[in-house]
Design goal:
By secondary structure, the chain is mainly α. The chain has one domain. Helices cover 46% and strands 0% of the residues. The chain contains six helices and no strands. The protein is extended, with a radius of gyration of 20 Å.
Length: 142
């Protein structure tokens, strides 16, 4: 019986030549602002978020449809195309209730600092609606 050939992909960030290729062939984006908490703030909700419009998301989705890596992964859904190893676990078959239960179990296993960090991370991510609303009000420059 013939064995399947698994094509592996290399992380180009690991070499100078790879980084140059990524830089030369990447998407040019314009940073329109930097948001950071006031130095005097006792507590903040910001933790390194990047906001972008839905147009960038749509562009990335369109471009991924012709990506060799994406297509190879779709052909071998149970194998990680970057490592050649099988995926250890899949949540695709879990119900929303099971995912919620697993999440709650994970959070309860964290110490107080870990819970605080998880909370800040979750609350720091703007929803797509928040990004779209900011875009509609001209708060995001294109």
């Amino acid at each position: 019986m013939p064995t399947a050939t698994i094509r592996l992909y290399v992380d180009l960030r690991e070499t100078d030549a790879g980084l140059k290729y990524l830089y030369d062939n990447g998407i040019s984006l314009k940073v329109s602002g930097i948001i950071r908490p006031n130095e005097d703030a006792v507590s903040t909700m910001l933790n390194g978020s990047i906001g972008y419009t839905s147009a960038l998301t749509e562009y990335v989705i369109e471009q991924s449809q012709t990506s060799a890596a994406v297509n190879a992964q779709l052909e071998e859904p149970s194998t990680d195309i970057f490592t050649g190893l099988p995926f250890q676990e899949s949540t695709a078959d879990l119900t929303d209730a099971q995912k919620e239960s697993d999440f709650r179990e994970y959070i309860s296993s964290l110490d107080e600092n870990g819970k605080a960090e998880a909370y800040v991370q979750i609350m720091s991510l703007p929803t797509q609606e928040q990004v779209d609303e900011a875009d509609r009000h001209g708060q995001i420059k294109k």
